[in-house]
Amino acid sequence: MQTENTLALPVGITLDRFIKSQQDAFPYATGELSQLLRDIALASKIINREINRAGLIDITGALGRDNVQGEAQQKLDIIANIRFIRALVNGGQVVGILSEEDNEITQTNNHYAKYVVAMDPLDGSSNIDVNVSIGTIFSIYRRISPIGTPATEADFTQGGRKQIAAGYILYGSSTIMVYTTGKGVNGFTYENSLGEYFLSHADIKMPKTGNIYSVNEAYFNEFPNYIKEFIEEMRQKSGCMARYIGSLVGDFHRNLLKGGIYLYPPTRKAESGKLRLFYECYPLAFVIEQAGGKACDGREDILDIIPQKIHQRSIIYLGSDELIDNLEEKIKTHNHLMIKQLELV
Ligand code: AHM
Ligand code: MG
Fold first, then answer.
1. What is the per-residue pLDDT for 72?
2. Which residues pair with 150 in a beta bridge?
3. Nearest to 89 by CA among 38, 31, 39
4. CA 109, CA 92: separation in Å to the nearest integer?
5. Ligand 1 neighbours by CB, cut-off 6 Å
6. Is the pLDDT of residue 74 over 90?
7. pTM of this prediction?
8. CATH of the domain at 109
C-alpha cells in the first residue's frame, strides 16, 4: 500500500537545517560560525556551476565570442578564488583569508569579524581543465588578534589543533561538502535542481584498515626505503588496490569512505613534501581524526606540527588507523637503524 512517504519521499535534512540544529545545541552560540559555513556552501554552489559549464566557456572563447564578463579567459582556479573571497567578504564573518592563490593574507575589512579562513579554492590543478574531479579545502580559526583590527599572520599560525572547523567540497560525479566542527564528520550532497545540500553521509567513520593506497608511483625510486617497503607490503595484501587521481580531495574522500592511505612522501623535487600545511594538510587531518583515522608526517601528527610560515609545505600520510600505525612502526625501525649505524661510525 502506498503511504504519504512512498508517494512523495521526504527530501531529507538540508545543510542549513543541520547547521541550525547544531547551533541550537549550544545555548550561547551566536550563529556567526553557522553563517560562515553557509557562506562557504554558497561559494561552493557558484563554483560548482562554473565547473559544470567550464567546457562550454572554452568553446565560446575559442569561437571568439564575448564570454561571461571577461571571466571566461581566466583559469578556473582563479575564478574559484575570486568567488570564495567575494562570498566571505560579503558574508561579514571573516576578517582575513589565506588562499593558495595569494601570497599575502587578504584583508576583508570586516575588522569586527571573529574568524579567519585558510583555503585552497580549487585543488587538483592538473585535473582542472580535463573534467576530472577537483575540490575545495577550507580551515577556520577563531582570530587571536584584537577585535576591531585587521587580521595578522598569528591568527593563522595558531596550530592545527586550534582549528574550530574544517572541511572540503568535492566536485565529482556528484558534488559533496564534508566538514567537521570537532564533533564528528558529516557529508552533504548537492541537489542541483533544488540548489541545496542534503545530509547524505551522517557521522562518517573511516574503516579501521583498508586495501587502497594512493601515491604518485612515478616517484617510487625517489622515496625513502621505509616508504618503498610500506608500498611493497601493501601490494602483497589480498585485495590491494592502487588508486590515485592526483586530486587530493578526491583521493582523500574515497579513502575516508572505503579505508586506505594517501601518501605524499619526500621526493627529490619536494624534499619537505608538496602539500601545503594550512589549507591542505591541517584541514584534512582534522577531518580524518574526527572520523577515526590518522594523519602524520612521519615524525608527528599533522595537527601537532608547529607552523613556521603561512605557505609552508609538509610531508603527509593520511589514512586508516591501522595503516598509519604500520607505517609509523616502519619509520621508527628505520630511524632506530640509522641511529645504530651512526653509533658504529
Ligand atoms: P595543487 O594545489 O597545485 O593542485 O597541487 C596539489 C595536488 C593534490 O591535489 C594532489 O594530490 C597532488 O597535488 C598531486 O601531485 P603530483 O602530481 O605530484 O602527484
Ligand atoms: Mg592545492
1. 41
2. none
3. 39
4. 9
5. 100, 120, 123-126, 216, 246-248, 251, 274
6. no
7. 0.93
8. 3.30.540.10
| Residue owning the nearest CA to atom 17 of ligand 1 | 246
Asked if pLDDT for residue 14 goes beyond 60, the answer is yes
Q: Are residues 28 and 80 in the same domain?
A: yes
Choose one of 99, 120, 129, 216 to mutate for the ligand 1 pocket test, by most ligand atoms within 8 angstroms of C-beta.
Answer: 216
Point out the ligand 1 atom lying closest to the alpha carbon of residue 125: 4
What is the structure's pLDDT at 67?
43
The whole-number average pLDDT for the span 9-23 is: 87
pLDDT score recorded for residue 35? 94
Pocket test for ligand 1, best of 248, 277, 317 (most atoms within 8 A of CB): 248
Show the domain range for 109: 10-201
Q: How far is the CA of 139 from the centre of ligand 2 (A)?
A: 13
Contacts 24+ apart (CB under 8 A), 243-246: 243/212, 243/213, 243/214, 244/214, 244/215, 244/216, 244/217, 245/124, 245/127, 245/132, 245/133, 245/214, 246/124, 246/126, 246/127, 246/132, 246/216
